[in-house]
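Long-time lurker, first post. I've been practising inverse folding by hand and with some scripts of my own, and I keep getting stuck on stretches where the structure tokens seem ambiguous. Below is the full token string for one chain I'm working on. Before anyone asks, I'm not after the true native sequence, just a reasonable design that respects the backbone. If someone could post their per-position residues I'd love to compare against what I wrote down in my notebook.
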């Protein structure tokens, strides 16, 4: 039995948004504990990618695929730049956003059931 409310939401986009938010907080905590100054461009990039993924959670949102593709590019780029510290989960979030964007394309081409 599938839940009716879940049909309008994309779990891959939700996971990408959640990972981006968690990694942004983790990055700020780690840098703060080390006594350093965070790279604000990195924090802003993670926040922007997370917000784009949040927008892409709703499958009926206009330009959803564009937002998810932009989020994927940001997350993959930031993840590769931070690969030696917090980057690996961010790369995973980028892959999830990319999967959600590509899956959104295939869902549009399907015929409605019934």
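-- Answer (accepted) --
I ran through it position by position. Result:
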């Amino acid at each position: 039995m599938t839940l009716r409310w879940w049909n309008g939401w994309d779990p891959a986009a939700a996971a990408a948004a959640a990972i981006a938010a968690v990694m942004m907080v983790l990055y700020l905590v780690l840098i703060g504990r080390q006594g350093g100054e965070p790279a604000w461009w990195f924090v802003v990039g993670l926040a922007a990618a997370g917000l784009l993924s949040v927008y892409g959670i709703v499958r009926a949102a206009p330009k959803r695929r564009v937002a998810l593709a932009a989020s994927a590019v940001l997350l993959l780029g930031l993840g590769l730049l931070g690969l030696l510290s917090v980057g690996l989960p961010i790369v995973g979030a980028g892959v999830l956003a990319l999967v959600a964007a590509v899956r959104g394309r295939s869902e549009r081409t399907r015929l409605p059931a019934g």
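A couple of notes from the structure itself: The chain has one domain: 9-105. Helices lie at 11-33, 40-55, 64-81, 87-109. Happy to go over any region you disagree with.
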